[in-house]
Amino acid sequence: xxxCAVCKYADAPLSPALAAESPPTxxxxxxxxxxxxxxxxxxxxICYVCIxxxxxxKFNRPIRVLVAKVGLDGHDRGARIIATSLRxxxxxxxxxxxxxxxxxxVNTALQEDVDAIGVSILSGAHMTVFPKILALIxxxxxxxxxxxxxxxxxxxxxxxxKSMGVGELxxxxxxxxxxxxxxxxxxxxxxxx
Length: 193
Prior knowledge:
By secondary structure, this protein is an alpha/beta fold. Helices cover 37% and strands 12% of the residues. Strand 4, helix 5 (155-164) and strand 5 form a beta-alpha-beta unit. Helix 1 (48-56) packs parallel to helix 6 (176-190) and helix 3 (102-112) packs across helix 4.
């Protein structure tokens, strides 16, 4: 069986545009790892997420992202999926774990020198959590760090949070390719050093 030659993720849907010689395969067992693929075959076995990341990440370093769960929200499956997808796309990911405070998240972001903070929130506390994180980031002079996130956030609240300075907010079901592309493009525009 074959998987992505870049991220080694066996379940990755391969790009049909690049897999013209062999149609894309959708694997069902994520425990399988990719066998070594000859250099001549690599271009035909790259997943969508890696294609997007490699085409737009021009840094000489990986993008660093902190994925956080703030408050009493104990549902972290989505955050883990996003963290894994970002990692598989070549980013360095720091996952805070559950029940973090905004202060803990911002302090970790400062210590780890991250490019972006992604907050996963399902508890309904988004109108409290995001403004607090933004205030702490300003206080610590981290104005060039993206604050983004996702979860159960009504459209009206998304618009208000964006007007406060929060980046794109992603509802459940958003493609991980879109998230990788957004973070990569934002970091290139705002943290190009």
